[in-house]
Task: structure prediction
Amino acid sequence: MTEPSHSLLCRSPLQPGESLLSLLARLSELNLYPDPTILMRICRERLVERDNVTQPAMAETYKVLVKLVGIDADELYAASVHRFAATITPPPYQKQSILLPSGREVYVADRPFLQRNIRWERDLQFCPLCLKESVYHRLSWMPMAVALCLNHQCLLVHRCPYCQKNITIQDVLRAKCLTCGFHLTESPVISVASDKFGLFSQTVIQSWLLGISPPPNVEIPYSLPSQPVSVLYRILVGLCRAITNIQDNWHYLHEAPIGIDSSIIFPLPQKRDITPTQS
Ligand SMILES: [Zn+2]
Ligand SMILES: [Zn+2]
Result:
């Protein structure tokens, strides 16, 4: 009997800033799998221990993925949500690490921290202008703390603007709501270009999470205490949790000059269903 093939027939490189979730869903379609879960199942069948293939937390899963998709494990890790592990794992929890095939040691986040900080795969957000440029899902849209696109200086969109349905990876990869047919690239764009403080805070948060430098069009007018990023992020998360208890409108809270009536911001949901505007 011949050995099963370890690689996909059709391959594709990762696009700039693309998430692993997006790559695997694209490859699934490129290889004409009728159901995106088939590719996940192929990976799982080759694993000794159970792992989430779109959020791989084991070194062995990276080895299987490398053989299957032909992309370096370091690149796959950088496209995965575990890239946020060092920031979202709060002190005093011990950060977990794995060794990639390159010999590089990287952090992986425990499931509860991912659940609290990262958007669910069936409830994504997107930038309509990024999607117009190129149709794929960006890793930077995954954290719940990310509310805007720094390149286009606009709020991200979560839910279909027409039918309000949650956005899935299949919707993003077709740039279309698969429930009502609305073209996601036609979503109304809310500019935040005049909201200097909003841009500053999102630049800082995104640099903590992704380790990216701010685009040249974003000013950094304030400095922060010199503490580890995981400590600063933990304080921010604590402040956000405190704010979710507010039921009435807080007029003295930062008001973004983006033409949004602040009365739609409060009360905030107690759970994770927060909109980019509220964020
Ligand atoms: Zn964008
Ligand atoms: Zn829709």
About this structure: Residues 127, 129-130, 149, 151-152 surround zinc ion (ligand 1) (CB under 6 Å). Residues 125-264 form one domain. The beta strands are 96-99, 105-108, 125-126, 148-149, 154-155, 157-158.
